[in-house]
Amino acid sequence: MRPPFLVTRTIILSHIARLCSVDPGFDVDLYASCDLRTMTAIWMGYDTVKRALASGALLLTGDAKIAKNMQT
């Protein structure tokens, strides 16, 4: 059985990330699509954005400059 779809919003302002469970009303600059295992691995430092993108486990859609600098 496939797990239910999960939508979270992460707001990054001045290098501080906040995870929101409700829509805060801002325009979206970058969408990140991946499974929960991939997002957790990146968040915890077990994987990197670069490796997840290369393996196809992560898809970024939106502002190319933000995507390029996501984990630098």
Can you characterise this structure?
The chain is of the alpha+beta class and 72 residues long. It has a domain at 28-72. 29% of the residues lie in helices and 28% in strands. The protein has helices at 36-44, 49-55, 64-68; strands at 9-13, 16-20, 30-34, 58-62. The strands form two sheets. The protein has a two-stranded antiparallel sheet. A hairpin with a 2-residue loop joins strand 1 and strand 2 (16-20). It starts with 8 loop residues before the first strand and ends with a helix. 4% of the residues are buried.
Question: Key terms for this structure?
Answer:
two-stranded antiparallel sheet; alpha+beta; single chain; 72 residues; two-stranded antiparallel ribbon; 28% strand
Order of strands in the sheet with the most strands?
Answer: 1-2
Cα(first) to Cα(last) distance is 36 Å
Unreliable residue runs: none
Main sheet attributes: strand count, strand direction, barrel closure: 2 strands, antiparallel
Shape descriptor reads: globular
Average pLDDT, all residues: 81
Number of DSSP helical runs: 3
Strand pairing plus helix content: what structural class? alpha+beta
Helix content: 25-40%
What Rg is obtained from the alpha carbons, in whole angstroms?
A: 12 Å
Furnish the topology, listing elements before pairings.
Blueprint: E1 9-13, E2 16-20, E3 30-34, H1 36-44, H2 49-55, E4 58-62, H3 64-68
Antiparallel strand pairs: 1-2, 3-4
In brief:
This protein has three helices and four strands; from the N terminus they run βββααβα.
